[in-house]
Design goal:
This protein is an alpha/beta fold and 457 residues long. It has one domain: Glycosidases (TIM Barrel, Alpha-Beta Barrel). It is built from 15 helices and 13 strands. It has an 8-stranded parallel barrel with strand order 1-2-3-4-5-7-10-11, surrounded by 4 helices. Strand 10, helix 14 and strand 11 form a beta-alpha-beta unit. Helix 7 runs parallel beside helix 9, helix 8 runs antiparallel to helix 9 and helix 14 packs parallel to helix 15. The chain is globular. It binds beta-D-glucopyranose (3 copies). One beta-D-glucopyranose (BGC) binds next to loops. Keywords: Carbohydrate metabolism, Cellulose degradation, Glycosidase, Hydrolase, Polysaccharide degradation. InterPro entries: GH (IPR017853), GH_1_N_CS (IPR033132), Glyco_hydro_1 (IPR001360), Glyco_hydro_1_beta-glucosidase (IPR017736). Its EC number is 3.2.1.21. It comes from Streptomyces mobaraensis.
């Protein structure tokens, strides 16, 4: 296994618009489904909302200076759809686009490569009211939006991703309902998954039409590193089902041009999939320039020993009879098990499954209960240990032939952690939410050293 990262390996950090920007009413922005959801009592812990978040909308220049001080080579951010195309259709908002022009110019001025994600979960509320992702029309709206952003920023952004983690949008949004828009309708969630796939394909086409040839277009997925608890046929079948419902439902059409037959069978009691029209899967199989993999923790499943329905709606429609188990090992503040081998496994899986497709670790990181000490310093040795383990996993995959061009820590800043509000801190930079001041944590200092040396010390 190599001990240093290859020259040219890109070290970055990631954020998402609704989690950091705030300024939700400024410059013509209209509400997204996350504004509606976070303002609905009971949906987000402590009633937290993204109204102010980390105020990145106003403090972006300070944040870019922080990135430069950390030595970051790239910054992965997302564009807020309702900020640049209020209500989700019609003309662009020049003021909304100007924010991203200023941000990108600031990044470029500091030698930091912008990596732009078009959709990180903040659907314009008007589009949800018109049917949301279960409605086919939303995919066409997304393609228009993609073209509009590409025409505005294509002269200065080379690296693009259509969607972030469509699994979360479809299944946390429409099946378990723990994310916006909070619907619990299994058939709607499967339709949503297809329309997100279609949005990706149509969006990628729109990007190609508007962007220079050198642009690199991707999608960012959170493939599930799912393991069977034993090698019994029943447990292996549970693994197969969850793999289909979390990963192959996207990679099937995106990489291979078809939905997996076992997925269609497993969900036959919920839908006949007639919403998939002729030609859709060839649109979805748009050739990618890279694939983003987000990874936090693996899953362990078995066949359920009883068939009691689970008390809460599941994010896996059609997976009755599958039991989830906490994998062994230390856990983060999210209660997610720390297990870097899942990242290695995913990188090797896509190296085999999509030969020649460059990969990036587009998110990886951990939440811990960070607190400043008496002098205001934030020591987070657990996060350093987490990152070190995952960097080693990337090195091991590189040594075994994976083509990984970069790594993006989640997250640059502590931020609005969706249904957990501000209670979970993922940043390598601490945010004091009373003053919005930023303090680089111990992990940020450590990351700076890794970036400088290319070595996991
Ligand atoms: C995924 C994360 C996702 C989370 C949502 C995890 O299983 O790995 O990417 O954000 O679920 O609850
Ligand atoms: C958890 C994952 C888990 C998934 C399925 C997510 O909320 O974060 O670790 O695999 O749910 O239960
Ligand atoms: C999402 C981020 C989120 C992180 C931690 C990823 O699934 O893309 O927005 O904050 O996981 O849950």
């Amino acid at each position: 296994m190599p001990t240093t990262f290859p020259p040219g390996f890109v070290w970055g950090a990631a954020t998402a618009a609704y989690q950091v920007e705030g300024a939700v009413h400024e410059d013509g922005r209209t509400p997204s489904i996350w504004d509606t959801f976070s303002h609905t009592p009971g949906k987000v812990l402590n009633g937290d909302t993204g109204d102010t978040a980390t105020d990145h909308y106003h403090r972006y220049a300070e944040d870019v200076r922080l990135m430069a001080a950390l030595g970051l080579g790239a910054y992965r951010f997302s564009v807020s759809w309702p900020r640049v195309q209020p209500t989700g259709s019609g003309p662009a908002s020049p003021k909304g686009l100007d924010f991203y022009r200023r941000l990108v110019d600031e990044l470029l001025a500091h030698g930091i490569k912008p990596v732009l994600t078009l959709y990180h979960w903040d659907l314009p509320q008007e589009l949800e009211t018109a049917g949301g992702w279960p409605a086919r029309e939303t995919a066409y709206r997304f393609a228009d939006y993609a073209g509009l952003v590409a025409r505005a920023l294509g002269d200065r952004v080379e690296c693009w991703a259509t969607l972030n983690e469509p699994w979360c949008s479809a299944f946390l949004g429409y099946a378990s309902g723990v994310h916006a828009p909070g619907r619990t309708d299994d058939a709607a969630a499967l339709r949503a998954a297809h329309h997100l796939n279609l949005a990706h394909g149509l969006g990628a086409q729109a990007l190609r039409a508007a962007l220079p040839r050198r642009a690199r277009v991707a999608v960012v997925l959170n493939p599930n590193a799912v393991r069977a608890r034993t090698t019994s046929p029943a447990d292996l079948d549970a693994q197969r089902r969850i793999d289909a419902l979390s990963t192959r439902i996207f990679t099937g059409p995106m990489l291979h041009g078809a939905y997996p037959a076992d997925l269609i069978d497993d969900t036959a009691g919920i839908t006949d999939w007639s919403f998939v029209r002729d030609g859709d899967t060839s649109v979805i199989k748009h050739p990618l320039d890279w694939l983003g993999i987000n990874y936090y923790t693996p899953s362990v499943v078995s066949a359920a020993t009883d068939n009691r329905p689970s008390p809460a709606p599941s994010p896996y429609p059609g997976a009755q009879g599958v039991a989830f188990h906490q994998p062994p090992g230390p856990r983060t503040a999210m209660d997610w098990t720390v297990d870097p081998s899942g990242l290695y496994d995913l990188l090797m899986r896509f190296t085999r499954e999509a030969p020649g497709l460059p990969l990036a670790v587009s998110e990886n990181g951990a939440a811990y209960d960070d607190k400043p000490d008496g002098r205001g310093a934030v020591h987070d040795p657990d996060r350093i240990a987490y990152l070190r383990g995952h960097f080693d996993a990337v090195l091991r995959a590189l040594g075994d032939g994976a083509d990984v061009w970069g790594y993006f820590v989640w997250s640059l800043l502590d931020n609005f952690e969706w249904a957990y509000g501000y209670s979970k801190r993922f940043g390598i930079v601490y945010v004091d939410y009373a003053t919005l001041s930023r303090t680089v944590k111990g992990s940020g200092e450590w990351y700076r050293g890794v970036i400088r040396s290319g070595r996991v010390g």
